[in-house]
Amino acid sequence: MDIIVTGVLLSGTYALIAIGLTLQYGVARIMNLANGETLVAACFAAFWLFVTFQVSPILGLVVIAPAAFALNWLIYRLLLAPLVRRAKSRGALEVDAILATFGLLFLLQGLMLLGFGGEYFTYSFLAEPFRILGNPYGLNRVVAFLAAVVIAGGLWLFLGFTRAGTAVRAVAVAPEAAGLVAIDVPRFSAFAFALGGAVTAAGGTLLSTFYTFNASMGVVFTMKALIIVIMGGVGDVRGAVLAALILGLAETAVASLIDPGLTLAATYALFILTLLFRPQGLFGRAPS
């Protein structure tokens, strides 16, 4: 039972990180290899606000998420939109986007190394026990999970029950057809990319409340997000949430029952199994 509860609590932040990449890749068609750097930057921002101004990370979301939205919107407009306009096919766009965001990864990582160095950081926020079914768990993990549920629920309501959310889903499914019904595809692609960055930053802010981080760990979370997106089905938010739950449970089980050093190996094992037996993802459709 301890493994299940701990895995579920971890899966909340994993889901936000993966939903962010799902919006960027599934809607904007940009495989953002710098996604993890957005997460780490949010960790540092939450750390700085808490240590310097004693601002709760939960309140810090009000500043960090909009800042990440604005930064990712600028990145899309200045760096990625020209690639989208010149691309002659989706395959060409994916190659260009991977190369561009790969360079962006090292730029952002270098800036964080310059500002914070290579050491690990952590801070004490709600580091006290909270009992679930008689067992103690970190209150910071519980609060982070509940906040992730609220954010994911708000995103689900937005995508499912607003005109802008419907437009985003239309661009994800068929961008050419969306353009034929007066949807501004470039505008909503930029919006989805920026929203994905904001959701990822929210996940990073919550993760920082119970996770030790440093400036070089973004690539690990980019890979985890990518694995979750592929497991769940590219562009499918439901699949990303379920895959995040599976990954959280798997990592917790391996860390508890075998060796904490093998959690990353378990992640890649799940990825390989998905590619072998369910390449279209949990909710994806096999090509006919």
From TrEMBL:
It is a multi-pass membrane protein. The keyword Cell membrane applies. Its main location: membrane. Pfam families: BPD_transp_2. InterPro entries: ABC_transp_permease (IPR001851), BCAA_transport_permease (IPR052157). It is found in: Cell membrane. Keywords: Amino-acid transport, Cell membrane, Membrane, Transmembrane, Transmembrane helix, Transport. The chain crosses the membrane at residues 6-26, 33-51, 57-76, 97-118, 138-159, 189-213, 225-247, 253-277. Belongs to the binding-protein-dependent transport system permease family. LivHM subfamily. PANTHER family: AMINO ACID ABC TRANSPORTER PERMEASE PROTEIN, BRANCHED-CHAIN AMINO ACID TRANSPORT SYSTEM PERMEASE PROTEIN LIVH. This is Branched-chain amino acid ABC transporter permease. The lineage of its organism: Bacteria, Pseudomonadati, Pseudomonadota, Alphaproteobacteria, Rhodospirillales.
